[in-house]
Structures are given as C-alpha cells and as structure tokens.
C-alpha cells in the first residue's frame, strides 16, 4: 500500500498563485531530487479521509488493477493526492477482496486482454462487476468491457456491454487520434459526472465504442467527434470513462473524488464563461531542459536553437527549475506540459536520472498531459549493454510521461521508408506505437527554410512564402534537420510528415528553426503545409511573441494546438491572457 502525504494549508497555493520548491530540492547532474513537494489547485483532502503510513482503514484503500503498460503513475498520484492509499492487484483473489477497484487501462486492447487472460483475472473481473461492486474503468478500462475490438483484431473483450470497439473514421476530416479537451453530453444521472457537462475533459484515443439500442441503458454520457461515441457508462456501482480524469485537471480530480467517496461534497467552481461544446484548441507550455555548465538541470530557451547567453561567459541561459515551472504552468491553465531534453540526442537517456525524477515529481502534482522528448532511440551504454528505444520510452512512461517525442531517429526512419516503401517494424517510432498505441508517440520536426526562385528546383514539396527570401525568392522548401538543428538532411518537412504518419506517429510537433525565439509569430506557411497534408493532429511551435499569434495560427491553419516557451518563462505573456484572447476571438478553449 502507498500512503499519501500533504502539505499544510499554508503551503498549498491556489490557482493563479506562485510557489517554489523547498530550498533543499535541487536537480543536478550528479545527484537526485532530495525531497517531495505537493501543491493543490482547489481540492483539499476531506476531513473524513484517513491518511496514515500504515494500518489504514479500509475506507481509505483503493485497489488498482495495473497490468503494466503506459503511464499509470498519474492515476496513482491522483489517488494519493486525494488522500487514499493504494493496494495493487497481485492475484485474482485481490480483485474479489477489493472494496473499490480502479482499472486504468492504457495501450492496446489485445495486449491488455492477453495479460488479463494469462493471469486468470478476466473471469474474476467479470464476476466482480456482475456483483455490482464499486468499479471505475478508465480509457481502455472502458473499452475492454465491450464484446470485442477491431484494434489489431477482431479481439474478444470481457463481453459485459454489447458492442464492438472500432476506429474513428478519419475520412470525414477529423484527425485521428482524437487528442485533446472535448465536451460531454450527459445522458442520465451519472453520479460521478455531476456538474461536469459544462466543462472540458481530456481524451486521447484512436478507437471508440458507439451507442446502440443494445447498450443504450449503460450510457451515461457521449462525446461528439465527427460522430457521437460513448464517453462514459454507468450501471449501479459500475462506472467507466473513455477520457482520462487523472489528466483532466481539477475537473478530473473531482470525478475521481466522487467515485472514491460518493458522500463527499465538492465545492462548485464559478460558472465558466462559455459552456464546453466541442474539441478545444490546446495551449501547450514547453520546457527546454538541459544541464548547464555547473551540472544543474535547468529550463532554458534559445534563439534559433542557440541557448547560450551573448556574454563573455557564454553560459547556458537559465530560466528556472523544471519542476517549479511545470507546476506553475499547470496552475496557470496550460492544457499540456512538454519537456524537451535538448541534449538527449548525444546523452544516454536512461542514465539521465534527474530528468526521470523531474517527470516523477511533476506527475505527482500536475494533472494535465505531459510529453517528454530527447534521446529516444536504440542505445548501447559504456558497458556494452544494449537498450532498445522501446525500453527507453517505457522508462519515460513509468516515470510519468503520457507521450514521448521522437526527433532525429524519426527522420532517419522516414528517409529509409521514403526510399524503400517498406515498414520494417524496427524503428523506434514503429516499436513504440505498436506497444503503446500511436496516440503515445509524437514526432518532433525541426526544419529550416531553404529559399527558391522556382519550386521545381528541388524534388521536395515547396510553397510560395508570404515573406520573400533575401534575394527576392518567392518559394521555399523546408529542410529537416537532426542533432538539435545542427545537421541538415535530404528530406523535406512535408515528406517527413507523410512518412511518419504512415509509420505510426499519432501527432506532429512542428518547429521552425528560422522562427525560434524571434517572437514574430508562427511560420504560417509551414504549419498550413503540414496540417493540410496529414490526418493526425499537428502542434504549432516556434515564434510566438504575442497573444494575437495564437489566434492567427488557429484561424489560418488546421493546427490542433499551439506551443510556446520563452514568452511564458520570461512572463512576457501569461497563459491565461492567451486563453482570454482566444475566447474573445470565438475559438473553443478550455478555461
């Protein structure tokens, strides 16, 4: 079992406030984090919750069915944050002995069913649910309740709810995976979803179950993404949700609290400016992380990828501690937090203990999605031990990341695929997406403009640009780079995006070296080119300097999210200011 600890009321900042980690908390290249820190947004432990190191009362214990795939750490942290202890399922008997059971399914349908069957837990789980015992399934934990899934299938499910889980149809213009904050349509009394219908919750999935006459009495809410799919079910004490409450901020925490303690009273938030109605555009805070010359892990930001100050000392620009900033951005309303380990292309990522600890401690208090990138590739360490990219990614997931971002390694894989047209299944992109699903894999593209007088001068896709080149060139192609922008490669951003989508990427993080750190706006030409070319979500990055740049990129391109770093770190523009501007402009956002 795991006991929860809480800071005193004086140590708990509220939304909009600032805080820092204790002075003893130091992240350096030579030693690990030395203490825990906790923050709360609005929710505080109820007086009736029992918080003990041992001999806990049964009312404070939650049984967790973790079959070992993906980021379940966030669910654990959310449960502990709310004042409950955790007992892990080790045997089928643990399921039947549970007072309340949470099944946070992550990954692929077939892999999950295979584990449940091999451990002889599938039949016991069905028996537990049929007895109307308190149960909460999350994401795949909902899908597995159905008869079967088309994912790598058909694959037989638990068969408790009529219906087949199928893939979203991307032919209607909706991007797959369905990633982001969307609205719920409550269809009946759901208990745990009280007052949630006006708010956004976080989804990340490529497959969904559809309403039918046979399963209609199970459905407690639906969500619209090109079609109405099942967002949650309830029958008696049985609950399951397609979205991730542990990643849905204070809204999600309130859902978990209602399940864990149905008698609790939740303080209602003030009415939102506008009721959630559809998938929201996301505002993402990015933290470029690296070790400085003193060995400390710091957040930095470059100008066209140069992160050193223009001083005699030429030191690495230090804009703060990664755990502190991530926590503050969560309080400020960031929809996601992205960590990019910008020296990961040359370092051994699993040897980067401080970076892994940053993820672990961040996930204890930040209840929105997090992405980590840098160095995700096959690697052989100094002792000759070989690590696959899948092992590297798995450690990031176990440490609290929801998605991994692949850069240079995806470029090499795309080049080979473009030449041969053959999917080998050996690239990091293919390996990770096969095990964890393509929604867990982001490809980071780092292109730079190459101006042309004639678009036919190159074999790669070129576009007419808004701002001519230095010699009046009206066209440009976007050359991809690797190793932190240091090396150009013989492939364009357009060709790379198309290739990685085929290879299993679920999202594209689209940077632009020319715009990086300039504060003059996103490269609209580039973002429009790529977002029109692929059917997976695209995140616009590089160049934001004012709130107007965010509305511009959302109005003029099909990007799903916009990311910024320096303007948030330097407090030139607040996340809340960006969202208020977008709201006034009529753009759907999460408030």
What does this molecule look like?
The protein is 25% helix and 23% strand. Residues 1-57 and 302-309 have low confidence and may be disordered. Strand 15 (282-291) and strand 16 (297-300) form a beta hairpin. The chain is α/β, with parallel strands linked by helices and 591 residues long. It is built from 16 helices and 29 strands. The strands form six sheets. Strands 2-1-3-4-14-13-12-9 form an eight-stranded mixed sheet. Strands 15-17-18-21-22-27-28-29 form an eight-stranded parallel β-barrel, surrounded by nine helices. It has a four-stranded mixed sheet with strand order 6-5-7-11, with helices on one face. One of its GO terms (cellular component) is chloroplast. It is an enzyme of class 3 (hydrolase).
What distance separates the N and C termini?
Answer: 35 Å
Tally of helical runs: 16
Evaluate the radius of gyration: 23 Å
Q: In terms of structural class, how would the helical and strand content be classed?
A: alpha/beta
Q: Walk across the major sheet and give the strand order.
A: 2-1-3-4-14-13-12-9
Total beta strand runs: 29
State the helicity in percent bands.
Answer: 25-40%
Shape: globular
Largest sheet: 8 strands, mixed
Mean of all residue-level pLDDT scores: 85
Strand content: 15-25%
Low-confidence stretches: 1-57, 302-309
Domain Glutamine amidotransferase: 64-259
Binding site for substrate: 375, 511
Pathway: Amino-acid biosynthesis; L-histidine biosynthesis; L-histidine from 5-phospho-alpha-D-ribose 1-diphosphate: step 5/9
Pfam family, one: GATase
């Amino acid at each position: 079992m795991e006991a929860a600890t809480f800071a005193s009321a004086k140590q708990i900042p509220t939304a909009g406030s600032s805080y820092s980690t204790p002075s003893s908390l130091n992240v350096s290249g030579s030693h690990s984090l030395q203490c825990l820190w906790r923050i709360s947004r609005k929710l505080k432990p109820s007086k009736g919750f029992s918080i003990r190191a041992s001999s806990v009362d049964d009312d404070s214990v939650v049984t967790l069915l973790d079959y070992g795939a993906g980021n379940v750490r966030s669910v654990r942290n959310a449960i502990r944050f709310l004042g409950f202890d955790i007992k892990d399922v080790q045997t089928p008997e643990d399921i039947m002995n549970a007072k309340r059971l949470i099944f946070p399914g992550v990954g692929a349908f077939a892999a999950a069913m295979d584990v449940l069957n091999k451990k002889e837990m599938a039949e016991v789980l069905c028996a537990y649910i049929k007895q109307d015992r308190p149960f909460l399934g999350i994401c795949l934990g909902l899908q597995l309740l159905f008869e079967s899934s088309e994912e790598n299938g058909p694959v037989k499910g638990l068969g408790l709810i009529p219906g087949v889980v199928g893939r979203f149809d991307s032919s209607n213009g909706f991007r797959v995976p369905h990633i982001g904050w969307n609205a719920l349509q409550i269809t009946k009394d759901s208990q745990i979803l009280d007052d949630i219908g006006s708010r956004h919750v976080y989804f990340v999935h490529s497959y969904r179950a559809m309403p039918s006459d046979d399963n209609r009495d199970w459905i407690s809410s639906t969500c619209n993404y090109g079609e109405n799919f099942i967002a949650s079910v309830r029958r008696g004490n049985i609950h399951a949700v397609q979205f991730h409450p542990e990643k849905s901020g204070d809204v999600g925490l309130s859902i978990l609290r209602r399940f864990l303690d149905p008698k609790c009273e939740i303080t209602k938030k003030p009415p939102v400016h506008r009721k959630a109605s559809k998938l929201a555009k996301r505002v993402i805070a990015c933290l470029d992380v690296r070790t400085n010359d003193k060995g400390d892990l710091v957040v930095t930001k470059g100008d066209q990828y140069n992160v050193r100050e223009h001083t005699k000392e030429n030191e690495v620009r230090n804009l703060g501690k990664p755990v502190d900033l991530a926590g503050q951005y969560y309080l400020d309303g960031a929809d996601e937090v992205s960590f990019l380990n910008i020296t990961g292309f040359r370092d051994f990522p699993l040897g980067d203990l401080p970076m892994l600890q940053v993820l672990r401690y961040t996930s204890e208090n930040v209840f929105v999605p997090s992405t980590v990138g840098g160095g995700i590739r096959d690697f052989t360490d100094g002792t000759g031990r070989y690590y696959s990219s899948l092992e590297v990614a798995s450690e990031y997931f176990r440490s609290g990341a929801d998605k991994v971002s692949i850069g240079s390694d995806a470029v090499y894989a795309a080049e080979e695929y473009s030449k041969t047209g053959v999917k080998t299944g050996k690239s990091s992109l293919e390996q990770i997406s096969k095990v964890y699903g393509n929604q867990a894999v982001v490809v980071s593209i780092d292109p730079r403009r190459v101006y042309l007088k004639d678009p036919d001068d190159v074999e790669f896709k070129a576009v007419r640009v808004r701002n001519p080149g230095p010699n009046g060139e009206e066209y440009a192609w976007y050359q991809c780079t690797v190793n932190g922008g240091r090396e150009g490669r013989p492939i364009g951003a357009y060709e790379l995006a198309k290739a990685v989508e085929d290879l299993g990427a679920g999202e594209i993080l689209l940077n632009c070296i020319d715009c990086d750190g300039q504060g003059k706006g996103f490269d609209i030409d580039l973002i429009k080119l790529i977002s029109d070319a692929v059917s997976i979500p695209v995140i616009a990055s590089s160049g934001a300097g004012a709130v107007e740049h965010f509305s511009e990129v959302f109005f003029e391109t099909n990007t799903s999210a916009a990311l910024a770093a320096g303007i948030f770190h330097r407090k030139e523009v607040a996340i809340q200011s960006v969202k208020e501007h977008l709201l006034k402009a009529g753009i759907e956002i999460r408030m």
